[in-house]
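We examine the record.
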Amino acid sequence: MVNRTVNPAETFKAVGDPTRLRLLRLLSRTELNVQEMVQILGMSQPGVSKHLKVLLDAGWLIHRKEGTWSWYGLVSDVDFAGGPEFRRVVLEGARLSPDAVADDAVLQRVLAERDRRSGAFFSDIAGSWDMIRPAFDHPDVQAGAVGALVPPGLELVDIGTGTGALLPLLAATGARITAVDASAAMLTRARGLCEREGLNDVAFEQADIQDLPFADDRFDAAYCSMVLHHVARPERALREMTRVVKPGGKVVVMAFTRHNLVWLREELAHQWLGFSRDEMEDLFARLGLRAARYLECGLSRLAAAREKLPPGLRGRDEDWPDVFLTVGVKHETSR
């Protein structure tokens, strides 16, 4: 909940402490959970939580819960009650912290560990992924995704292609596809699928989807299906998708809706418990994308597919969140 009232004494007091300035600087770069901030600052959890409460009460932070995890981020300049100019001046000062270099080094290790956990999971699960994926695929959403990519002949990048299960569907649109994944094991299976299906116009690239090895404005569309909740920094991944798409091109995203099913984090290496429509539309706006379509579907019709999952990954029918499809169109002036 954003604090929209100003108490000058609280607002100034909150930023008069070096530790709280360190926190503001870190949270201006990315959202972090309490455990990660404890690791970066080298403090106890109660000590970090005390500083976070001061900043939250003074209106500097936003807070959300995911199961037992607490996540914090810096309030936007639009929502900060003290005004964007004061916020900017404080953050400029926070960047002069003598701990900045050390904090950044630990932050990079924390973010790398997020990605390492996802990478290790997908390397281990590659052989079973084609059995797991149908449990949360939804035909209505997939059809909407394909519809978003017509007309034929598009230059398309499939972000986080996995084992390539959707490549035949995407190829059916007549698109020229570049399939990207960070996992070599996944790409090996995707190549095998394309060989069996006779899909000869698919290129493969092993890369971090948060740092795509493509020039600006290269593709007509970027497609990302059920990947964002596995990524350390979803906003950075979407920023990269937006960058490589031509002005007027589309960014098509499928992911789980916001939920509180923490077992998905433990069993399927989810880093984020879904995303709300407001979150996605706000993110699109910040990245220079016009929200053009949103479709949400439940997974109740896929109970039979769920029975094929390995024990421990089946959950209950009510244990699967809904899936959304959203499409953003890159503004002609975006860069």
User: Anything to note?
Assistant: The first strand starts at residue 32 and ends at 33. Residues 127-330 form a domain with the Rossmann fold fold (CATH 3.40.50.150). The mean pLDDT is 83. The chain has 14 helices and ten strands.
